[in-house]
Amino acid sequence: MPAVNETIETVQSVAESGYKWGFETDIEMEFAPKGLNEDIVRFISAKKNEPEWLLEWRLRAFAAWKTMEEPRWAAVKYPPIDYQDSYYYAAPKEKVGPKSLDEVDPELLKTYAKLGIPLREQEILAGVEGAGSVPAEGRMPVAVDAVFDSVSVATSYKERLGKEGIIFCSISEAVQTHPELVRKYLGTVVPQGDNFFAALNSAVFTDGSFVYIPKGVRCPMELSTYFRINAKSTGQFERTLIVADEGSYVSYLEGCTAPMRDENQLHAAVVELVAMDDATIKYSTVQNWYPGDAEGKGGIYNFVTKRGACRGARSKISWTQVETGSAITWKYPSCILQGEDSVGEFYSVAITNNYQQADTGTKMFHIGPRTRSTIVSKGISAGHGQNTYRGLVRIGAKATGARNFTQCDSLLIGDLCGAHTVPYIENRCVTAKVEHEATTSRIAEDQLFYCRQRGLTQEEAVGLIVNGFCREVLKELPMEFAVEAQKLLQISLEGSVG
Amino acid sequence: MTAPVATGAAGFLARYEGLKDHLPGARKPWLNALRADAAVHFAARGFPTRRIEQWKYTDLAPVAQASFAEPLTMVEGAIALPVANAAHRAVFVDGRFRSDLSTLDGLAYRVGSLAQDLNAAEPFLGALAKPGSEPLVALNTMLFEDGILIDLPEGVDGGLLELVSIAVDPGRPFAFHPRHLVRLGAGARLTVIETATGRGQCLHNPVFEIEVAEGATFTHGRMLQEEATVFHLSTIYATIAAGGTYDNFTVAAGPRLTRNEIHAALTGPKAACHMNGAQMAADGQHVDTTTALDHAAPDCASRQTYKTVLAGRSRGVFQGKIFVHQVAQKTDGYQMNQALLLSEDAEIDSKPQLEIYADDVKCSHGATVGALDADSLFYLRSRGIPESQAKAMLVEAFLHEAVETVTDETLRAALTRALDNWWSRQGKAA
Predict the structure, then answer these.
(1) Cβ contacts (< 8 Å) between B348 and chain A: which residues?
(2) Torsion B345-B173-B318-B304 (CA) sign
(3) Contact state of A420 with B353 under an 8 Å Cβ cutoff
(4) Which of B320, B212, B219, B217 is nearest to B268 (CA)?
(5) Residue-level pLDDT at A251
(6) Which of A50, A423, B171, B300 has the fewest CB atoms within 10 Å distance of its CB?
């Protein structure tokens, strides 16, 4: 019941504003000049004091990007993007030291307070010794890396994690402190020239998170990153790299917001996951970038490449995503199942309301024997929203006994939206078994009637039914995220019924 | 022309240039214009390559790289006809109508050679299969010499008609591009059983234009059974008006490469379309079923069930799209494709697709891929049935399930025979 009350409250609180994360934080920013060329790439690299190999790596990516064409196969429509009309580096001007909260601009901390990020860890960062080892209120703590526009501003619980040998820091910091690890894994899952947006990201990425879980370690807390695009005319290009060594486990959460603006902003992230023998990575995303207004003006272009490699035997990578924001989403978190008996999972809820467009799905590459994958995708379209599931299941000749199950369900609310399903199934292994099913329907009148009869408003009833529709995916989310996701579903569908 | 015989698209374009004053209807300006338009499209696009999304899984390079001559002007000697399934049949040899082999007397509707009745075809030819739609349609439009013309007046029950296509091996590669027009007036009914047989290095590239008017029912059974040297690329465009039904059932088993492409549009309320089929391939063969169902009116229903069985080093493709327009409320669309792999060297690629712009719809698709079910095999073997026989029973059951939807008994028997023929040949090979 509290969750329901909370949901209703949240809905009421956003009744006017719609998007409550639409505020802009007024802090001094440092920008590189607008536009994209080799000098900007060099500037970013120099600004971050990067080693020569990384600059070379970036320049190779940039050279590749220049030869590539923007992909046009996705079922999304948008005006051409002028890549020269954006800032590729924007950082809060304050010299930020992740070890001391005093050095962080108070405006920035206010931002996170507004976002409701569990930055209770601020205390620890502020120097309250020992507080980090005792979780407050008996809850499992969440370690947070906060990325503001281009750079990481604070990482909490670092010390506690350090005791376990876990590295959790911004990727720029990792380049300085653990160059050998970064160099060993960076670009091995998503190569620089993988696709247009990944190449762009490789050339100009400014920050992101780096996680390394050593052999046999079970990460004692959820790791989390909050991304926020704040400054005007900026793109955000973060790069996340998570390596789980043999027998380790990590659960990683990612959340994103941006201010309300009339213009469109580009977000082209790359996430790479590597799981060795018996390792498990659970990666959860609640994506709530600004979706644009009710007329489809403004909003984030979310063009993201996410891919995980199950390199080791019995390794497992599980993607869970709740995509409620962004004007356009282009995102296919994938698993390369190399290790024998490795497991890939993809659980997704994507909502498009107003003029939002989402083209999202997954790719499961079954390479090793007895690899298994599960895909559960729930698409919800309302208003003029267009929602596409696009996925690939490829079973190689050596993936004996491989198994895939895919379920894609679409829900339509209103008669101006669209729901599309484009699965590709490629099998060259006789002993593999692949099953795919997809359905499209709208909310049944009798379900609505049943709820209305019991005193729920039309909107509450739709919320309840939609949450039920998404339950299989939401239950995969960690607790705190699941509650937040439920609220978001409700908010995203604001104004789509009645 | 001193240059060597051109291959692929260039070869066909050169053929068109050479033949255009001699092709049927060469003195009819409307047809000349249509063919010229098709030539422009074909010249611009050539044969589709795998970079084209709809051809991602089927490589036409063996066709594009080959050089095909025209068929012989007149085939001499006796021609073995397949066993008749119906009293009336139209026979085409190398794509040309043969009245001497056909039995069409006493039919209460217009049926016969398209080439001999071009004036009747004028309003309809190219109306559904437009020259700019698909490169293979353009190729067909540019070079077709004949085909069947069926025109059923309002309310007529045309009964059962057989359409037979035979390709005769002239000892060199050749190509033919028949164009078939089928029109059913309001409330008319017709069942066509189509058989394609043939041998030699040949390309059979038929295009169908099918118009089903209000309340009419057209049942179309197809058995593509040419030998493993033949390329069979067929394209069907069908439009179904209010309350009309188009039932297509295709067995594809035989050619080296089969592409069975069907575009059906439901244009009036309560129209229905059923597309079912079984496609089988053995060593060195490739089968491809590609369907596009366009729900353009409310209250329509569509059903698709396709089965694929692959043996040896073979490849199977299924691509099926259901498109639901915003006006097509209360659409009921269902699609199922299942593939059975019998060999380690077989590959199946499947792409079921939904594109939906109406909210009050019920659409679903399913796809399964796998080997014979181990539990079922065990069940049969535990009851004393030898393994090979148990396998045969399961494969047969898998294939026969697809035919169950066919209500016409003659057609069902013919289709079942075609399935069993293929399977018994496989059994012998194994």
Answers:
(1) 425-428
(2) negative
(3) yes
(4) B212
(5) 92
(6) B171
B68 in a domain, yes or no?
Answer: yes
**Closest residue, chain B, to A434 (C-alpha):** B369
Question: Could you tell me if residue B70 is inside a domain?
Answer: yes
Q: Is the pTM of this model over 0.80?
A: yes
Model confidence over B153-206: pLDDT tens digits? 999 999 999 999 999 888 889 999 999 999 999 999 999 999 999 988 999 999
Question: Quick check: A421 contacting B, CB < 8 Å?
Answer: yes
The token pair at A307 is: 């891919």
User: Which amino acid is present at A200?
Assistant: L
Q: Is B231 in contact with B203 (CB distance < 8 Å)? A: yes
The answer to whether B364 contacts A427, with C-beta atoms less than 8 Å apart, is: no
Give the distance between the most distant pair of CA atoms in chain B: 71
pLDDT in tens, B92-110: 999 999 999 999 988 889 9
Q: Which burial class, exposed, middle or buried, applies to B411 when counting CB atoms under 10 A from its CB (0-12, 13-18, 19+)?
A: buried
> Quick one: tokens of B92?
């085409």
Q: Do B365 and A421 touch (CB under 8 A)?
A: yes
As a whole number of angstroms, the distance between CA A325 and CA A270 comes to: 18
Instruction: Return the percentage of chain B with pLDDT > 90, whole number.
Output: 78
Q: Which chain B residues touch A416 with a CB distance below 8 Å?
A: 326
d(CA B268, CA B288) in angstroms, rounded, equals 29
Residue A446 contacts by C-beta under 8 Å, 6 or more apart in sequence?
none
The answer, for A427 touching chain B at a CB cutoff of 8 Å, is yes
Q: How many CA atoms lie within 13 A of A9 on its CB side?
A: 7
Range B207-218 burial, b when 16+ CB lie within 10 A, else e: bbbbbbbbbbbb
CA nearest B120: which of B112, B130, B132, B128?
B112
> Could you give the CA distance from residue A156 to residue B110 in angstroms, rounded to a whole number?
83
Pairing mode, strands A418-427 and B347-356? antiparallel
Q: Is residue B50 part of a domain?
A: yes
Amino acid present at B193: I
One-letter identity of residue A459: E
Residue pairs spanning A and B at CB distance below 8 A = 112
Name the residue in chain B with its Cα closest to that of A407: B366
Give the residue extent of every domain in chain A: 2-492
Predicted complex ipTM:
0.87
Q: What is the DSSP code string of A300-346?
A: EEEEEEEEEEE-STT-EEEEEEEE---SEEEE--EEEE-STT-EEEE
Q: Do B357 and A418 touch (CB under 8 A)?
A: yes
Residues 6+ apart with CB under 8 A from A9: none
**A420 touching B, CB under 8 A?**
yes
- Domain range spanning residue B208? 8-372
| R_g (Cα) of chain A, nearest Å | 22
Report yes or no on B389 lying in a domain. no
Contact (CB<8Å) A433/B348: no
Buried-state track A373-398, b at ≥16 Cβ within 10 A, e below 16: bbbbbbbbbbbbbbbbbbbbbbbbee
Phi and psi at residue B326, to the nearest 5° = -60, -30
